[in-house]
Amino acid sequence: MAEEKNNQQVENQQSEENEQSIEPIFAEELTEENTNEQEQTAAETSNEKDELEKANAKIKELEAKIDEYENRYVRLRADFDNFRRRVDLDKQASEKYRAQHLITNLLPAIDNFERALQMAPEDEQTKQLLQGMEMVYRNILEALKKEGVEPIEALGKEFDPHYHQAIMQAQEEDVESNIIVEEFQKGYILKDRVIRPSMVKVNQ
């Protein structure tokens, strides 16, 4: 009985010695395993950081392109709006002053009518002819008036370079300075546009 007890004690002692000898091995293996895991985790973290930086750089690049395209769109939209505005203005002007070319060609004929009507009739036949010419002249002026043509007032008015063209100067004491004393050729205005200024003599 005592022998069995001694054997049991010996076995227990050997078991404890074996466990003590195994513990450092396990500890060393655990340390290596933890180190490997830490290195792997650090590597994964570094990779994730690199990918995140690449993703942020790509996002910034795309945002810059978006800003560039938006600026291009804004400029193109502004250019298109300006172009459309110019086209509308040209269209309105073309409609508003559509008769200008025809009127400009008619003005010399009107001038000739006015010169002829200033003639004194020598006989009844000439008088009737001048009356007929005056009717035609008035009809032409009426037609021009419907298109927005009006003669520019000049005689006795103050000289305005926007409407009058001074070709001579006068020195009349009883007339104020810068007043038109004579009209050589009548001027005309189409709506708000001068198509021919009046040719006048202005007092100094």
Automatic annotation (TrEMBL):
Transmembrane segments: none annotated. GO terms for biological process: protein folding. GO terms for cellular component: cytoplasm. It is found in: Cytoplasm. SUPFAM superfamilies: Coiled-coil domain of nucleotide exchange factor GrpE, Head domain of nucleotide exchange factor GrpE. Gene3D superfamilies: 3.90.20.20, Head domain of nucleotide exchange factor GrpE. Residues 1-54 are annotated as: Disordered. Keywords: Chaperone, Cytoplasm, Stress response. Pfam families: GrpE. Belongs to the GrpE family. Homodimer. This is Protein GrpE. It comes from Heyndrickxia ginsengihumi. The gene is grpE.
